[in-house]
Structure formats: structure tokens, C-alpha cells
Design goal:
This protein has 16 helices and 15 strands. It is of the alpha/beta class.
Length: 457
């Protein structure tokens, strides 16, 4: 189907071709045209691309809904959504029309009011937690994290932050300081400390029984490293780059209690997890907490660069004092994209669809794990899922070589996706049909079986 999503055609109908029509591979992947375009790009980028590009250098020409087409004419099933961005599918007609109309009317008036900006603010207020109706727009997730940290400092008058192993928040100074070192080569700011996260599969605190020591340790660490100095904690309530880590019930609530008891505020990094990605509007909904500040992005613009922070109403004075102005944030095109995305999502209950998509996918992944000893854990919610590969289930040693092998093998079969070494990331558009999700997981299982044969598992 190539028509627009209209009042008679839902987004899910528009976005999903018949399962027998995708993937459709006409050359080996990457094909000759992809290799040519990547060689030309390399002359100007000097290899400054992610490992996933280096492992399988495809060049894309177009996208439609849940599919991508490369420059050789190969049509892929999209299991990455850009990088957890195109929640409602590539080239959604409602979003494209809204951006184009805004571009034809007005480009940029800094932080003056426009009807588009006010409508976007009001639309965000309709979906964020009650009592969280203050917002400022930005253009990248890193900017939003930096802004959230400024708000936390303005609220508390303090400068220290605690964050968590394996979380990713950005690559500029402050954001890099609260990011795991393996994701950034920046020096960490004085007063920024990382603590172990509560990922149960790899927890170093408990041995078979959980008393949430990983959460109470946050308070101990703050008392030792930042006594009377804590501005806040920055946390991914589900990890993105580290592959859909979820936490035991009560972990996030206890972390929030420890942070607030130490005088800090809770900053939830919802850049990847927000706007339906986890089967709820925000990952904080699953945890039963309302953060003091949320960083928002990715899916809120469906590909258009727009992010934001959401701040609880009682912190209005701190928001005003945090120097929130930005050159591009809140421009009419960005705000038009936000409004179009939220209109579509609410009208079609795409959050509910994503929740069911995740339940079915996890059931299939759990069955897959029973058949393949190379799989250590399957996890996630909604359309933020992951498979962790290990050399041995008892030692849980990461199997990076197998992860890279499976990534390339599935790509050759027509699955466009992302990897993080031994962690296979499964993040399709939230509008993917149940049938195509199942087909994509079948491709992954075929590729895992090929890897097990290759490595003699």
C-alpha cells in the first residue's frame, strides 16, 4: 500500500506491507551501489561512523512505514527506527505535510511565541504526567540532558550528579559526565559519579535473592562522594544503547527515594523511551513515579530534530533561572512535527498497539531462547527489546563475535537493525504489524542458528 494514512486508512495499514512482500532482496547486501556511496562518504568522514555502519555499510535511498529501501533496490524490514526515532514509520504523510506547511509559512523566530509552538506545548501537556506542564524545546537529546541538569542545579543550588553504569545520555560536557565512559571519551566533570545499575541479569549485589541493595547503595554512594552536594540523579528508566535493560519492581522507586532523601531531584532520560516506545507514553509510567524533570526526544518528532525537557510545575522558578533559550528549539517546523505525531498517536491508540506488540514479541523471544543456548537473556517492553548473547549461560561471558555475526547475517537476509556487540537491539517502529514483527524475529532466529553452527555451539 502506497497511499497516505487518512481517515479511511490507519497508520498501521499504511505502514505495513504484506508479510510476503518484505524483505525483498535484489542484490547481495551491501550491494555495489551501497559500497560506492559509502566509499565516497568515507573520504569525508574518516571512519567517524558507528560500528553498526562499519559492520554492514548499506546506503539507504528511501523509507516507507516499516520498510527501508537501499540504493541497490533492496527492501528491508526496519528493526531499528533510525535509532529509536521513527516511531510511527518513515515518511508518514501527516508529519511530512505538517512540516512542509510550516516551512512554507515561517522558519525561525527564536523563542517568541507562535501558534505552532503553543499548540505543541499544549499537546505535550496532554500526555505528560499530571503536574508536569512546563516545557522547553531543543534540537538534540544531549541538549535536553544538559538543560535538565541546569534545572536540577537551579532547584537545589548544588552541582553534583549521580548516574548509572551502562546508561547513555550524550557526548557534550555535562551529558558525557553522566554517561558510561565506554560511550564517551570526554573527561568526567568533578562532582559526577557513576554507580552500578540494577540490571538483575548482571547484578553484582545479590546472589539469587534480591533485597534491592543496588538501589540503597545509591544513597550510600552519595553520602560518601557528594555529602550535601547532590543536585540530582540522571537515569534511563529503560536503557537504549545498552539494550532494553529493565529493572525489578521497586528498584526505580527506591532509587528516587534515596536521591530525594539526599536533597537531589530525579531526572528521567526518556529521550528514547518516551512517546509510546515502551508500550506506555513514558517509561516512568511503568515505575509509578513522577520525575522532577524528564528529557524527551527521538519519537516526538518522528525523525525531525526536536527534543524537550518537561519540568514539574513546582519548579517553575528554577526553569526560568536555568537559561533555557536555544537557537533552533521550538521552531515552527519542529512544533508542527510534534503536533502531527501526537495527533496520530492519540487518535489511533498507537501506544496500546505497541504494548501488545511487545507482549507478543517477548513471548516469541522467550521460546527462541529455549531453543538456543547462545541466548543468555531476552528482555524489554513494547518496541524496545533486546537479546543478549553469551558464550556460556553459567558464566554469562558476552559473546561479541556472535553478536556481530548475527547482525550481519540478518542484514543479508533483509533485516535493517542495530547492534551493541553481544546485545541484539530490536527497536522497530511502534506501528509494526504483529505479523511483520514475528517475521523479523524469525529472521533473527535463523541468523542465530547460523551463528551457533559457525561457532560450534
Amino acid at each position: 500500500m502506497t497511499g497516505a494514512a487518512t481517515s479511511t486508512t490507519s497508520t498501521i495499514e499504511w505502514a505495513n506491507p504484506a508479510p510476503e512482500d518484505v524483505p525483498a532482496m535484489v542484490t547481495a547486501s551491501p550491494g555495489p551501489a551501497s559500497q560506492m556511496w559509502n566509499a565516497r562518504m568515507e573520504r569525508h568522514t574518516a571512519g567517524s561512523v558507528t560500528q553498526m555502519v562499519k559492520l554492514h555499510p548499506v546506503a539507504y535511498e528511501s523509507g516507507h512505514g516499516v520498510t527501508l529501501t537501499d540504493v541497490d533496490g533492496n527492501r528491508y524490514l526496519d528493526f531499528s527506527s533510525g535509532i529509536v526515532i521513527t516511531n510511527i514509520g518513515h515518511a508518514h504523510p501527516r508529519v511530512a505535510e505538517a512540516i512542509g506547511r510550516a516551512a512554507a509559512e515561517l522558519d525561525n523566530v527564536h523563542d517568541f511565541a507562535t501558534p505552532a509552538k503553543v499548540r505543541a506545548l499544549e499537546a505535550l501537556d496532554d500526555v505528560t504526567p499530571p503536574g508536569m506542564s512546563l516545557f522547553t524545546f531543543f534540537s538534540s537529546g544531549t541538549e535536553a540532558i544538559e538543560a535538565a541538569m541546569r534545572v536540577a542545579r537551579a532547584i537545589t543550588g548544588r552541582f553534583g550528579f549521580v548516574s548509572f553504569h551502562n546508561d547513555y545520555h550524550g557526548r557534550t560536557g555535562g551529558a558525557a559526565s553522566v554517561t558510561a565512559a565506554r560511550s564517551s571519551n570526554a573527561l568526567r566533570d568533578a562532582g559526577s559519579y557513576l554507580v552500578p545499575s540494577g540490571h538483575a541479569y548482571r547484578c553484582t549485589f545479590c546472589a539469587g535473592s534480591c533485597d534491592l541493595r543496588c538501589a540503597t547503595f545509591v544513597g550510600d554512594s552519595v553520602a560518601q562522594n557528594l555529602p550535601g552536594q547532590l543536585a540530582g540523579a540522571v537515569i534511563e528508566l529503560m536503557t537504549n544503547g545498552n539494550g532494553a535493560t529493565t529493572y525489578r519492581d521497586g528498584y526505580v522507586a527506591e532509587v528516587a527515594r534515596q536521591v530525594r532523601a539526599a536533597g537531589g531531584v530525579v531526572i528521567a532520560d526518556e529521550v528514547a523511551t518516551g512517546f509510546g516506545r515502551t508500550g506506555s507514553w513514558f517509561a516512568s509510567d511503568h515505575e509509578g513515579i513522577v520525575p522532577d524533570v524528564m528529557a524527551l526526544g527521538k519519537g516526538m518528532g518522528n525523525g525531525f530534530p526536536v527534543t524537550a525537557i518537561a519540568v514539574r510545575d513546582e519548579h517553575a522558578a528554577a526553569l526560568a533561572a536555568s537559561f533555557p533559550s536555544t537557537s533552533y528549539g521550538g521552531n515552527p517546523m519542529a512544533c508542527a512535527a510534534v503536533c502531527a505525531v501526537l495527533d496520530v498517536m492519540r487518535a489511533e491508540d498507537l501506544v496500546g498497539h505497541c504494548a501488545e506488540l511487545g507482549r507478543r514479541a517477548l513471548a516469541q523471544m522467550t521460546e527462541m531462547a529455549e531453543r538456543h543456548p547462545i541466548i543468555g537473556e531476552v528482555r524489554g517492553r513494547g518496541a524496545l527489546l533486546a537479546i543478549e548473547l553469551v558464550k556460556d549461560r553459567s558464566t554469562k561471558e558476552p559473546f561479541v563475535e556472535a553478536g556481530n555475526f548475527v547482525y550481519r547475517a540478518a542484514f543479508r537476509r533483509g533485516l535493517a537493525w542495530a547492534t551493541a556487540g553481544h546485545i541484539l537491539r530490536i527497536t522497530p517502529p511502534i506501528v509494526m504489524s504483529f505479523e511483520l514483527m514475528a517475521k523479523g524475529l524469525d529472521i533473527i532466529e535463523e541468523s542465530i542458528a547460523e551463528a551457533e553452527a559457525h561457532f560450534g555451539m
